[in-house]
Amino acid sequence: MRVLFAGTPEAALPTLEALIASEHDVVGVLTRADARKGRGRTLHPSPVAAVARDAGLDVRTPATLKGEQADDVHAWVSALKADVAVVVAYGRLVPTDLLDVPEHGWLNLHFSLLPAWRGAAPVQRAVIAGEEVTGACVFRLEEGLDTGPVYGRLTEAISGRDTSGDLLERLAQAGAPLVLDVLRRVEDGSVHPEPQDDALATLAPMLSSADGLIRWEDPALAIDRRIRGVTPAPGAHTTYQGSRFRLGPVTPVPEVTDLLPGQLRATKHEVLVGTGGCAVRLEQVAPAGRSWMPADAWARGARPEVGAVLGDSSPRNNDAERTI
């Protein structure tokens, strides 16, 4: 089939690369525009743009699919005569007038078991909520948010040490053959889309930096899940002596219950922090202006005083917090 691909980040690459290597013809690629990164603020293409251009594909990077650019995008998509569009983490809403241009519509690889976790951050929200199983779905885009019929799905266990980055990488790899299987069944007419049950839907709104702020009054398990859920982005953080202090995944220590929330206990070999339950062991930390380092190495240099604490009690307005 003639395939239009829409995607932007690293998580979209396994599917794009699988399509390029398949019997299908990738006739065009939509992705986000080049972005400025690094200290020099130089322009860098999205991961999808870089791979697609190397493959000699027709790449377009409209700032929006609506407004003044809509006519140009619509004309280009129509001229491609794609049989189907495949979407993986594109990052832009597809307007209604484009949804029916390809004969078989726009099929989106979404990293959850829909109707669970509709929205921009399904993997992160699943980890934060303590889910034990998630997965990926291929569904047809329609006007609603991730509401379309599901063409195929797979499941994936969430381990107790998975970060959202770990889980997303596995789902991205597993999702590529799922997409190819769905396209095969669409092409031969054997696919049987299943409608979603809206009554079972949960939402996964985009995360902000505020979602990574750790409240040490929370239970250790909730803190553990939150840090893993926001790793690598937007990242977990607290404060130390008034400055931002970034945190990597932690390890709950059930036998230590005598530390107050946020209170530090540093030894030569470990750094513990009190929570609303048992303590947690810090693993990797990044003090303000510093690179990542083992927590015990930081403590040997910083020499926190007895009774020193991390963080404050700033409230976090987050509906997902109340589900933990």
UniProtKB/TrEMBL annotation:
The keyword Protein biosynthesis applies. It is an enzyme of class 2 (transferase). Keywords: Protein biosynthesis, Transferase. (6S)-5,6,7,8-tetrahydrofolate binds at S112, L113, L114, P115. The keyword Protein biosynthesis applies. Its EC number is 2.1.2.9. Pfam families: Formyl_trans_C, Formyl_trans_N. One of its GO terms (molecular function) is methionyl-tRNA formyltransferase activity. InterPro entries: Fmt, Formyl_trans_C, Formyl_transf_N, Formyl_transf_N_sf, Formyl_transferase-like_C_sf, Met-tRNA-FMT_C, Met-tRNA-FMT_N. Residues 207-302 form the Formyl transferase C-terminal domain. Residues 2-182 form the Formyl transferase N-terminal domain. It catalyses: L-methionyl-tRNA(fMet) + (6R)-10-formyltetrahydrofolate = N-formyl-L-methionyl-tRNA(fMet) + (6S)-5,6,7,8-tetrahydrofolate + H(+). Gene3D superfamilies: 3.40.50.12230. Belongs to the Fmt family. NCBIfam families: fmt. Attaches a formyl group to the free amino group of methionyl-tRNA(fMet). The formyl group appears to play a dual role in the initiator identity of N-formylmethionyl-tRNA by promoting its recognition by IF2 and preventing the misappropriation of this tRNA by the elongation apparatus. This is Methionyl-tRNA formyltransferase. It comes from Actinomyces viscosus. The lineage of its organism: Bacteria, Bacillati, Actinomycetota, Actinomycetes, Actinomycetales.
